[in-house]
Amino acid sequence: MGEFDLIARYFKRPAKRSPLGVGDDCALLAPAPGMQLAVSSDMLVEGRHFLSTVEPARLGHKALAVNLSDLAACGARPLAFTLALALPGVDEHWLEGFSRGLFALADEHGCELVGGDTTRGPLNICITVFGEVPAGAALLRSGARAGDDIWVSGTLGDARLALEVFRGTVALPADVFAEARLRMEQPSPRVALGQALRGIASSAVDVSDGLVGDLGHILASSNVGATLDVDAAVSTVAAAGTTGLGTEMLRTCALSGGDDYELVFTAPPSARAAVEQAGKDSATRVTRIGRIEAEAGLRIVDAGGAPVAQRFGSFDHFAA
After folding, report:
1. Is the dihedral of CA 90, 78, 317, 97 positive or negative?
2. Out of 153-167, 227-241, 302-316, least confident range
3. pLDDT tens-digit profile of 76-94?
4. Which of this chain's residues are annotated to bind Mg(2+) 1 (predicted)?
5. Can you tell me the distance from the alpha carbon of 258 to that of 312, in angstroms, rounded to the nearest whole number?
6. Which of 127, 152, 245 has the alpha carbon at shortest distance from 204?
7. Every domain range in the chain assigned CATH 3.30.1330.10
8. How far is CA 81 from CA 12, 63, 258, 290, in A?
9. Where are the alpha helices (DSSP H) in 28-126?
């Protein structure tokens, strides 16, 4: 099977909303009047971002989900995406599963494939996603203010727990591991919540490299500091009640885990009811885990307000 046959069989679909999709040198996009384009790219590399044992359908889902999560963090509505795919060879079983998982999530969010590229090489997936957001309404990292609450969506740390099982450092019951692995391999981008938070949240970022690191982007962009309640964050870990998981491991997973693709966002205390309603409207759990402060730096405390000595980091592709 040649390159263009591969594209035609597994990835070419008629464009429904875009003026021009797959098949020409460029796709054409037409955002609605008064809207701005939101654009994000993410790359997934085998052995770095996913294991070779992941099911192709789950990988197709995740490849798009991590990009949709960026749109969610800006409060944008998905429009379209491009796919650049390097493959070591043509594996029809793999391509069928991958494209099925990819398009299932794309259809769920009305986001259509409009172009890209394929080539031979080590397995590498790069997606660029396009969304639209009303002019001036995008959620940014730079809007947090002293006194704001810090919130997180969904659950934290489950993907990290699954990774620790693969590493052999943690043992989980089969059903708990299956759920944690699903969260690692098939995350849920919080697109509906991101749009519901427009006009409510003062800042937002998606949690891809760990809560501490990604919250740090908000603090740096907004020139503020924060106090974070580690126990409130741990309360969101789905496996938190599992026997044998020590406090240190749970805290590490919640604050440094990464691959959660949840939203961490800020909002003034006067907006608490509105945040809760946004969570209900988008069928997404939201949990208040700290507060923004004028003093620079991140202070981590337990539920009683005592400082936590444990150190927490975040994922860095180029760290030694």
Report:
1. negative
2. 302-316
3. 999 999 999 999 988 899 9
4. 41-42, 117
5. 12
6. 152
7. 3-134
8. 13, 11, 24, 35
9. 56-74, 92-108
Q: Is 316 annotated as a binding residue?
A: no
Is the pLDDT reported for residue 124 higher than 70?
yes
* 141 labeled binding residue: yes
Strands 77-87 and 112-120: parallel
- Altogether, the residues listed in the chain come to a count of 320
Locate tokens 């659950």: which residue?
155
What are phi and psi for residue 34, nearest 5 degrees? 80, 5
> Is 41 part of any known ligand binding site?
yes
Is 153 labelled a binding residue? no
The annotation status of 305 as a binding-site residue, yes or no, is no
The annotation status of 117 as a binding-site residue, yes or no, is yes
Neighbours of 243 (CB within 10 A): 6
Residue 76, SS3? coil
Distance between terminal CA atoms of the chain?
41
Q: Is 221 annotated as a binding residue?
A: no
Residue 49 annotated in ligand binding: yes
Q: Please answer whether residues 76 and 194 qualify as being in contact, where contact means their C-beta atoms are separated by less than 8 angstroms.
A: yes
pLDDT at 29: 81
Q: Please check if 5 is assigned to a binding site.
A: no
Instruction: Check whether 100 is labelled as a binding-site residue.
Output: no
| C-beta separation of 142 from 221 below 8 A | yes
Fold of the 148-301 domain: Phosphoribosyl-aminoimidazole Synthetase; Chain A, domain 2 (3.90.650)
3-134, CATH topology level: 60s Ribosomal Protein L30; Chain: A; (3.30.1330)
Residues of the chain with CATH 3.90.650.10: 148-301
What 3-state class would DSSP assign to 268?
A: coil
311 in a labelled binding site: no
281 is in an annotated binding site: no
Structural element, H or E, at residue 16: none
Which pTM does this prediction carry?
A: 0.90
* Rounded Cα distance, 65 and 259, in Å: 11
